[in-house]
Amino acid sequence: MPPRIQRHEKIIALVREHSFMPIEQLARELDVTPQTIRRDINQLCEENLLRRYHGGATLGDSLENEDFNAQKAKLQSEKAHIADLIAEHIPDNASLFLSIGSTIEAVAMALVKKRKGLCIITNNIHVAAIVSGRSDYTVIITSGVVRPIDGGVTGVATVDFINQFKTDYAVLSASGVDADGSLLDFDYKEVSVMQAMMENARMRYLGVDHSKFGRNALVRMGSIGEFDAVFTDREPDEAMCKRLEEAGVKCLIADNGK
């Protein structure tokens, strides 16, 4: 295999592992010049395998879609138990925002089974499809541009739409939770939508499985301390538990039956 092809495979593997890789770090890892890495990234971007950001790269649409489908298939049981626990903390006849992601889709399925009379505002066409079968629900889907990878609706119009409402709850997820408590995602447009949901809800719930703790992503959504409760399937490490306690955030652990 030509050295360039081998290098491309290693670059993709490193970006996939770390979610975002700076050019300088890739150059050190592969023992080549930053100029070589820039040329490699440009070619991989042309093939839609990577997406370039200032100073580095993330996965491109083709690999991101592949990874999203793989991620969605992982930890299904854990996400279902997290979703059940969240549904127990949403009363009947409540109004709520539901964002994007496989955990939030699981929340939608749990709500349909457990709760009546809900008003749900979502930027997730999959969530809208799940909850729209309930005749006692009011389901509102935001305006905006649909992302083909996950059915998320994003954009300036989405934020403007959300700002018209004030709900009882916002139920959100995140792509990663940094050690300092920062909530991270890959798409700044989606982050803007989730921030609007946070600002326009009286109670904020975060649902994240254990794999999200310590996972990197490029865009900061906010802090875990801005939520009223965090729902997960394993207790976070001691430092994170202390951070949550100091911020007055409840950490609720779903019983996964193990």
UniProtKB/TrEMBL annotation:
**One family name in Pfam for this protein:** DeoRC
The residues covered by the HTH deoR-type domain are 4-59
Gene3D superfamilies the UniProt entry points to: 4-hydroxybutyrate coenzyme like domains, Winged helix-like DNA-binding domain superfamily/Winged helix DNA-binding domain
A single Gene Ontology MF term assigned here is: DNA-binding transcription factor activity
List the SMART domains: DeoRC, HTH_DEOR
InterPro entries for this protein: Carb_Metab_HTH_regulators (IPR050313), DeoR-like_C (IPR014036), DeoR_HTH (IPR001034), NagB/RpiA_transferase-like (IPR037171), Tscrpt_reg_HTH_DeoR_CS (IPR018356), WH-like_DNA-bd_sf (IPR036388), WH_DNA-bd_sf (IPR036390)
List the keywords (alphabetical).
DNA-binding, Repressor, Transcription, Transcription regulation
Q: Does the keyword Nuclease apply?
A: no
Q: What is the protein name given in its UniProt record?
A: DeoR family transcriptional regulator
